[in-house]
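A further point concerns the way the authors explain their paired sequence and structure data. An entry of this sort, consisting of the sequence and the corresponding backbone structure tokens, reads as follows:
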Amino acid sequence: MVVTPVVEAATGAEAAVATEDRSAGPRLDGFTYDRVEVAPGVHLQVATAGSGPPVLLLHGYPQTHLIWSRVAPELARTHTVVVPDLRGYGDSDKPAPDADGPDDAAYSKRVMAADLVSLMSALGHDRYAVVGHDRGGRVGHRLTLDSPEHVDRLAVLDIVPTLHAFEHVDRTLAHGYFHWFFLAAGGGIPETMLAGDPEAWVRLRVADHPTSGEPLDPALLDDYVRCFADRATIAASCADYRAAAGIDLVHDRADRDAGRRLTRPVLALWGAHGFVGTTYDVLATWAPFVADGVELTGRALACDHYVPEQAPEQTLAAVREFLT
């Protein structure tokens, strides 16, 4: 079992870091849990362990840092591993979405990426690798564009760039990624509907991806439900998707117009049986977003969308090889 309810004390933490007693839910085995203020009044929960070169692991929707439960403890044997809940998710703070506009700037990937620069700085890390799954991959993409001086290399799991996806919408994408458009709807519609049965939504979303790979841990799924049932999480996650369909595209197009591309080595991993793997030529899709001469590698793994949970050994091996 790679998670345990034992609470460990933080040691040697900076003034901005406070130990959190979160003993009710599962935890990453051997990790210290803290809360770090990353912006005025905004704290992220973060789990840390290991020694060696630092690696930042980022989760996706509708999950939490626990997606890394089958990867992080092993990776911590060779690296310093930092595993936060993103702003708006898990047990991190959930600032209210912006009320003065449709773009939900408080959940732009630029703001979420800035959270992580602050987090890593508070933990004493100025330069690090970033590995992100799903929404976390999109935050990692923006972090690497905005703060390349802090990023050694970037791994993105089971995504193609947001800008490409929105600029190539067709019936296949509308069906496969219907939740992108539903969650980005305004007027409180998705928030109201999800609040009616958040458990069903989380379980049905995850059950959409049972086709291959290892089964998800039921205890972790229960904890994803616990976190998502918070109305603040529902509001924040909808704001995340509205930002992706709004202000994030403004930022992405500005980068493209200015010729800004990723200047750090990029690894793309994807599930061979998932939507991304069966719809896109993943490396060809990422290539225009990576600067000329910068390493871009990747491969499909024998799983569906939840790559770190369904193919943990393959994920660990690929990430370790990339970080070497």
Observations:
- Residues 103 and 232 are 18 Å apart (CA to CA).
- The chain has one domain: 17-323.
